[in-house]
Design goal:
two-stranded antiparallel sheet; alpha/beta; 2 domains; binds S-adenosylmethionine; Rossmann fold; single chain; disordered N terminus
Length: 461
Amino acid sequence: MTKHALSNQGGRALAHGDPELARLLVRALEASREEPDSLTHGFHSYPARMHPAIARRVLQSFPGGLVADPFCGSGTVLVEARVAGRPSLGVDLNPVAVWLAEVKTDIRSPAARQRFRQLVRSIGAASEERVRARVDARAPLPPAERKWWGPHVLKELAGLREEIWSVGHPTDRRLLAMVFSAILVKVSNQRSDTAEREAPRRIRKGLSTEIFVRKGLELADRWDALAEAAGSGSPRPRIVEGDALRFPRFLSRGQRAELILSSPPYGGTYDYVDHHARRYAWLGLDPSTMRRAEVGARRHLRGPEAFGKWDRQVLQMLRAMRSGLAPGGQVVLLVGDGQLGDRRVDAAQQLRRLAPQAGLRAVAGASQLRPDFTGRHKRREHLVLLVGDGDARPPRFRRGPRPVGSEGRGAKPGQGRRPASTADDAGRGKRGPKRGRKLGSKGRGPGARRRRGPGGPKKRR
Ligand SMILES: C[S@@+](CC[C@H](N)C(=O)[O-])C[C@H]1O[C@@H](n2cnc3c(N)ncnc32)[C@H](O)[C@@H]1O
């Protein structure tokens, strides 16, 4: 099953709760018809990426200070926060996500971008030379991993990796390592990131290097676009490898998030650690904490205990968010219905039910149907707005333009405020053709684990 399956189609949009706020959320969900791969967003595949337009609209609707994404994945929210000129904090337990989010939120100076292009070309030339001269190189993989690449591809990748790991500057090395990561599944015998089935590909000698060079140059062009959109003075996000259930630890002393915008894993839907299995050994990353503590993982949510366990994880997540939230702040979550064995869990209902136990209150939501390519009944994806239970004032928000053709969708002005738990106003949404669900400072909050960077004996530059 892929998250794309759940998120790549439009459907009926339902608005819940406070009419004005729900309209903003409907508008954000509908924005996912826009281009999903602009700026640095499309650089590297990542399962269940949030659609950048959803993040953009939510940031526009709820202006303010620090934005936090405790499940930042590939960094979609952080890229958009940078474009919006807002400081941000991203946390993820997956070391691949942290490296990727760093790469995607980097801007670099024009001169550094130019040097990076030269570096990519020089590594490409050295790798081509290795292929021509049939230089031997050993892939740092356990035996079970080697089957995923043809013998000459494995050798070429190992040579490319040696060239990258010989680069002296740690930031450059990290950036190049993620370019390498971006091509690994493309030249493998694995069907796709989320489909771990064998699908042999014919990859001629030299092609892996060509794709690497193309990807590296593409990244530099994407940074150009991000620099233009964000401006070089935009605040660089802080990105930490850590557990979202301990999210407040990663805030600086006295700091609180004014907006928590995040897309936590959908219950029982993914195994992120398996989706990145092809990458850990090549990149020298340790996935053991992720294997143990991944939230919502399909492999952990089986059997009769699954429902209670998933509830406990969601409650812990909400409590962590609540204690990291500034007074008057908002939590906006993009969630999908869970699939625990045969049992479907309505994710919006689950949030509404558990929020009060975490000191939060769901005030509005928007939901859309998504097809489920496992052949099961359709599921829904929801954008839910929560605020602190004790917050007397209604959340601060900025009204956006009414979306074209949205008449009748969501609740109408003047209907008054109603609690989300009792009101499920339905309006019809129109079908959309495409939907979608991404090097900042290497800041590490207390409790964040150290990351091993690629290192090598030989030094380039
Ligand atoms: C739906 S994805 C987020 C995608 C992200 N919004 C993006 O656009 O790329 C959920 C993320 O939760 C992360 N995750 C799972 N368990 C976690 C935990 N306990 N703490 C922090 N992150 C976790 C996964 O690694 C994955 O990146």
